[in-house]
Write a structure and sequence with these properties.
Blueprint: E1 5-13, H1 34-43, E2 54-55, E3 64-74, H2 85-95, E4 101-109, E5 121-130, E6 147-149, H3 156-166, E7 168-171, E8 188-199, E9 213-220, H4 227-239, H5 245-254, E10 271-277, H6 280-283, H7 287-293
Parallel strand pairs: 3-10, 5-6
Antiparallel strand pairs: 1-3, 1-4, 2-3, 5-9, 5-10, 7-8, 8-9
Helix pairs in contact: 1-2, 3-4, 3-5
């Protein structure tokens, strides 16, 4: 008899039509979460066990992902062998075909693996377009996928100085929004990367107008609620001259969410979760189990 198998999946989505990645409130009409659709797709594989998805990284309404991750357990009926990774990806994407959600990779992982707690780092990229007087003049490939700043002038040098303030280990209480889990989250985080580089439009080679883009990259093991959007908004405010670097330092050192100026949080549509990284050793099955369950696997466990 085949026992249950734990799978790690990586998935992408356009967040505009969903209430966030987490399950929607069943008592409220409106958008469903990405998790609702993923669990529906897994349920349609007719597992013997109830479906429960554990997602590594929560994103809000309107935020996108090129690579989020989650784990779940699956036991097939009638003593059928476990799905191979490739077949699982194809089967889930078949059931997700009407949604803006796609599975990109899947791995069989050890039974004690946890998508959230085993994650070593998470990377977010925030995309900013400049110089377009109204969002309707953006190429359609950019609608709801960037923050359009009408003002062409940004002091990128000042933005780099602002970004440098955020790198390292700090109490980021000033950069988290109020949430139900506020008392349980440690506000001390270590930012390994805060970087600002020129970006490009998805339609750059084909659109009739050149649109300057900037990308802000943030990498840490974990983030607080709306921390990335608040940091982005503050760095952009420095670039626009609305906030000085010393003022940003004062906000950081206040360690109080009420110290963050109202109206500076960057909008959701420019934010992408682009990577969730794990150690290869955490993904690898015990040799005997691997040989029994996955005789056809030959690919390396790349991040």
């Amino acid at each position: 008899m085949h026992s249950w198998t734990r799978y790690l999946i990586f998935f992408q989505y356009i967040g505009a039509k969903y209430s966030g990645v987490a399950k929607g409130n069943p008592h409220q009409l409106g958008k469903r979460g990405v998790q609702d659709h993923l669990e529906d797709a897994i349920t349609r594989l007719r597992p013997l066990n109830p479906v429960s998805l554990s997602i590594s990284s929560r994103t809000d309404t309107g935020v996108h992902a090129l690579s989020n991750s989650a784990h779940f357990d699956l036991q097939r009926k009638n003593d059928k062998p476990p799905f191979t990774e490739d077949i699982l990806v194809r089967a889930l994407n078949f059931h997700l075909r009407t949604e803006q959600i796609r599975i990109t990779r899947a791995y069989c992982v050890p039974h004690d693996f946890h998508a959230r707690f085993h994650a070593q780092s998470r990377t977010y990229v925030y995309r900013i377009a400049q110089g377009i007087s109204h969002k309707s003049l953006l190429p359609l490939t950019e609608c709801s996928l960037c923050w359009n700043l009408c003002n062409m002038k940004l002091d990128v040098g000042a933005m780099h100085k602002a970004a440098a303030l955020l790198i390292g280990t700090h109490d980021f209480s000033s950069f988290r929004a109020i949430s139900s889990d506020l008392p349980f989250k440690n506000p001390v985080k270590t930012l390994d990367v805060v970087d600002i580089q020129p970006g490009s439009s998805f339609a750059q080679a084909h659109f009739h107008r050149d649109i300057p883009f900037w990308e802000l990259t943030f990498r840490s093991r974990s983030f607080l609620y709306k921390q990335v959007r608040r940091m982005t908004g503050a760095v952009v405010a420095v670039g626009k001259g609305q906030l000085s670097v010393p003022e940003l330092k004062d906000i950081l050192e206040a360690r109080d969410s009420r110290a963050f100026p109202q109206g500076l949080t960057a909008p959701a549509q420019g934010l992408f979760l682009t990577r969730v990284d794990y150690r290869d050793t955490d993904l690898q099955l015990p040799q005997q189990t691997s040989e029994m369950q996955l005789p056809t696997i030959g690919n390396s466990l790349k991040k």
